[in-house]
Target: OTOP3 protein
Amino acid sequence: MSDKKVSRPCHHCKSRSASAPTDTSKIHYEKFWLYRHCSSVQQRDRQAQKAGQLFSGLLAMNVVFLGSAFISSMIFNHVAITLADVWILLSILKVLCLFWIIYYLLGTSRQPHAVLYRDSHAGAIWIRGSVLLFGMCSILLNVFQIGYSTILIHCKSRVEIVFPSIGILFICTQAYFLWHHSKDCIQVQHNFTRCGLMLTIATNLLLWLLAVTNDTLHVEIESQLREVERRFAGKAPSSHPSWCNETTLCTCPNTTICKVFQKGYILLYPFNTEYCLVCCSVLYVMWKNVGRRISHHHVPHTKPKFKLQGVVFGPLLGTAAVIIGACVFMMYQIQATSLAPSRQVFIIYYSYYIVLLPLMTVGAVIGTIIHALEKKELDTLKNPTRSLDVVLLMGAALGQIGMSYFSIVALVATDPRDLLNSLTLCYSVLLIFQNITQNVFVIDGLHRRRVVAEEDTKEEQNREAYSQRRVSVLELGQEIRKASLSYIHTYSHLSWRRRVLREISFFLVLCNIILWIIPTFGAHPVFENGMERSFYGYSTWFVIVNFGLPLGVFYRMHSVGGLLEVYVTA
Model:
């Protein structure tokens, strides 16, 4: 697999990003040995691109299958394959990814004519910001794990310190790489870049799979916390299962520091799985953009900007939902940190959702109906980022929908007449409908072509004229008054369809933000109320929650980006 450089005039110079070099005059066409007899250079390039994607995909598939086999063997036969063996394999993959990322940063991206185009749709600021946020939380998680293992070094393997240390280096390097190069459409070393990206995607998927299935440290922490509570209560140790007897032999010498590491580890654990999922989505877009040449039709002449105009009721209702949700969240966190969370706090938590979810569902349904009534044309241009957005919205919604169905089965099979169980059942059913209706609304809105309104053009011209001159304090007051009158004028002159779409989109944005904050920062009643856990068993429900919860958090975060896009294009 190799690449061929052909000197040709660049017919797409007008479509290059501002960051691209202005003297570019060469395009690197791909070449693959299976298609060396193709007469057309363009046809050979297309076939070579498909072959490169196929072989890099096969590489990722084999790596994922190998890692999955290791992880499955650890779960079902932990004597032959231990957790340390899985960590060693993942450490090797991380080191290989580190070498490739460093080579890309220092070698590939700095070659002449390497990045002729940059995908304006890829690497939105909110998703790159989430990479940094979740990356920092994952680094803290690894720091807590290192501190916990260092205190217990007398009974812990050194691999438990080396693995998170390599993880910190991997997270920092990958976050820097994605922040600066997520928009690249690389035009050199196509196949090597594809293989490197796919290897990194496979490594992140395996890290996510291990985080979802491995409850070893959680069980150990819960066992130690119970032992500490028993010692403080002056009770004799009770008979534990074999895994508890093993963990009691490895007791922290300083219980205060250990509790800090343990609580921090449990609190930050979901962020690590979230980080892996976000990185996979960004890396996949980069993989699709390898060798991509963007024509001028794909480059927007005017980039849509977010402006808080034409909305009144959406921000008011959404702000009320955020404030009430924050109060419920703080009340829940205060109560849930106690040894026995009160039943009342679970009732308040589920009641809040039961009120909010139908409002979101009705809003999404109304927005979908308005989309159907509109005569706006569909945007049929090829857009890998939008295609991935649709796949991610559909795929991430499966996490919450799957957890909801598991809860429904457990609730119906036990005692659905109980008040708390009835609320949980209503919550699960409503969550399914809300996810489906919101997906339909967002996906339909993402495929609508934006129409630049006349008031938008005038406002842009006024802003440019205003920026070219300085104003005094008196003039500033007059400008503020003009801006207020302009806001009222804009709101009154918007068509009712566009106004309703903006109101609904902004309301759903704020609702999804609070529904993202609540589970992200520690409120997990699906695991803490104990009903589903007692029905399915600890290990089974642990896997279900750690599979569905990060996907649910990712879904809310991704929905915010999609809804903002719908708001801007409305």
Remarks:
- The longest strand covers residues 2-7.
- The CA atoms of residues 151 and 253 lie 8 Å apart.
